[in-house]
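FAQ

Q: What does a record look like?
A: Structure on top, sequence underneath. For example:
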């Protein structure tokens, strides 16, 4: 096993609970539903799971330990991480290392929350000390206010237009029309709809902003010893990484940290950015997808708008992005925003994506989160491929 390699570890299952704008179910039930479906997709039994990782903003007063009790797991390894939208990928990377070290053999990686617009804004107002003490008292508009400034800065610096961001949002909605679990399933979006939508925080319009919802996502990971006997399609982690507080001395940066580890990630995988068949990007706002495209080396700095103008990013196109609709059209279930792209990537690579399935062998998943005073503090990414 080469240094930094994730050899011998396989993703053997993936699933979501139903995504909904409103629900009568509690969070534990949604997490259970995602986990139960993922266990079935892995052809495993619950009692075989000996590791559990969870990311959730609203699990309190419970935590991963009491969740293991609730589910009846005798766990040898537990992980609870809150890195916002970077959490899901960080969870699976840490779980892979735990399995390699022999600390667990089968790990369930869970994420989920029950959110609406009110609870989402309340969370952001007290998200951390800087937001609570220096921004919330002035009515900063929560995440919409922060990323409106990012969007304007990006437009002024690189010349991106409203239509560029809109093209990405419209393409993702086209993908969501093939995803029955998207909250905007069956609701088409045109560029005219996007441009004429009501303003939220200049220059953001309605369809630039994620739509909080209720839901949960789960990934099941296993050692090679277990995986080879399961008779299910296997997915490998070919490379990955995480970065926090980068760049440390630029609190309002249009970078997120991917460039700090992407070369190592590609070297681990044996592939380059141009070898990817798709990207599942963290899409709380289109501008962050632009920044990820650049940070991951899919296009050069400041060139994302041109890339989007010249690329069909639907599932029928040249380079599919967020093939299930992403958070902008499928919904953002809190911490599940960092896992929804991983589940979608695994289902695509396993050939289980239904009407939105396209031919692929490997692709990128990327996460971003923990918004502070001027930017998100955590980034993550991984390259997943068919085994």
């Amino acid at each position: 096993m080469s240094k930094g390699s994730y050899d011998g570890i396989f993703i053997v299952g993936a699933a979501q609970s139903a995504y909904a704008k409103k629900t009568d179910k509690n969070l534990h039930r949604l997490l259970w539903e995602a986990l139960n479906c993922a266990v079935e997709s892995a052809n495993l039994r619950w009692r075989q799971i000996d590791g559990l990782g969870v990311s959730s903003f609203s699990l309190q007063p419970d935590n991963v330990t009491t969740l293991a009790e609730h589910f009846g797991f005798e766990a040898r390894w537990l992980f609870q991480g809150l890195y916002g939208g970077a959490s899901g990928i960080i969870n699976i990377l840490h779980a892979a290392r735990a399995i390699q070290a022999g600390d667990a053999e089968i790990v369930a990686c869970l994420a989920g929350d029950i959110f609406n617009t009110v609870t989402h804004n309340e969370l952001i107002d007290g998200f951390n000390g800087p937001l609570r003490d220096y921004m919330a008292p002035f009515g900063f508009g929560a995440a919409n206010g922060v990323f409106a400034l990012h969007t304007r800065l990006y437009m002024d610096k690189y010349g991106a237009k409203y239509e560029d961001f809109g093209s990405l949002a419209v393409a993702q909605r086209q993908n969501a029309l093939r995803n029955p679990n998207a909250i905007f399933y069956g609701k088409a979006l045109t560029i005219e709809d996007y441009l004429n939508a009501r303003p939220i925080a200049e220059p953001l319009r309605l369809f630039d902003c994620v739509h909080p919802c209720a839901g949960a996502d789960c990934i099941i990971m296993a050692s090679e010893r277990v995986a080879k006997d399961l008779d299910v399609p296997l997915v490998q982690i070919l490379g990955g990484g995480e970065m926090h507080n980068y760049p440390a001395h630029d609190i309002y940066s249009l970078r997120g940290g991917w460039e700090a580890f992407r070369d190592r990630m590609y070297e681990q995988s044996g592939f380059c950015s141009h070898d990817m068949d798709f990207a599942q990007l963290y899409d709380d706002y289109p501008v962050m997808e632009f920044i990820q495209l650049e940070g991951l080396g899919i296009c050069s700095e400041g060139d994302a708008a041109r890339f989007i103008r010249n690329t069909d990013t639907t599932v029928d196109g040249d380079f599919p992005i967020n093939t299930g609709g992403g958070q902008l059209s499928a919904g953002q279930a809190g911490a599940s925003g960092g896992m929804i792209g991983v589940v979608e990537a695994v289902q695509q690579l396993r050939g289980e994506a239904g009407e939105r399935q396209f031919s692929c062998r490997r692709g990128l998943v990327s996460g971003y989160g923990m918004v502070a005073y001027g930017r998100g503090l955590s980034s993550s990414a991984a390259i997943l491929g068919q085994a």
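Q: Is there anything notable about this one?
A: The mean pLDDT is 94.
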